[in-house]
Structure of PIG-L family deacetylase:
Amino acid sequence: MGRQVEGHAHLPDRDAALLSRCDGSRPLDGFCAADRETIARWRRHGLLLMAPPLTPAPPATGSAVIVSPHPDDAALALGATVARQSARILDVFSVETWTKDPYYAERPALTRRLLLDEERVAARVLRARVELLGFVDAADRDLRRDRFFTDPAWSDASAREEPRLFDALTERLAPLLDGPGPVYAPLGVGGHVDHVACREAVLELARTGRLDTARVAFYEDQPYSLFSPAEETAKNLGERLAEQGLGALRPELLPVDDEAALTKREALGAYRIQVRKGIVRRVHRHGVRLAEGAGFPAAERIWLMRP
């Protein structure tokens, strides 16, 4: 991940050869016992992740499309759902360097590359397809460097402050969202301006008849919904949408079984630069709480537009 890992800075030739074979194409039982022991040790140290077998991808026209403001947003919010049914992930603001880690903050070019590498690894674990749209993250745009959160989160004001960007984003998404499958967009919990821009672009397509509202659902932005209630954003946004004739928002739980939950946690392990292990645990506990009394182990929550 860009830094040396203590005890693994220089691999013996045999271990280097073994590591090169850990490319996601071989089943674990295809390795000898000694190699499996080494692989298990590397996994404990966070040097590699386990991924389910690759299966034939479903037809692109019928699969779900997730509008992900940044690399990691789709996996954080809907990783278990993607693990269960596959999806196409559109990483919108994929030119990104933001991090709290001083090491990476001092190396923006490296950080930009590694953030995308993390996304590709997580997508392999989830068996998802990723498309990078190449828009610049708010933290690297002059207008937003010091203020990339807006209040209230359900307002469209921040998106309208960058009209050229908003128009370009809307037009870029239009053909990519064409088809019969469901479209998942961020609800905008927490008010990150890139999340709000993605939500409003999808809504603009719905308002102008270029996207069927019956296909659209909004997911709870993670980890923001751990700190700000999604219900408040959904209620106030729903009132605005109802006034515009798009319908209020109704919550729905997407069931998560144990296997999907495990796959999601494994995928989230790829995100070392921005997602801490404590956040991964809290996201999992949040999903368990959502499912209390529902008859399944955990859940991910979406909000549907309904008259």
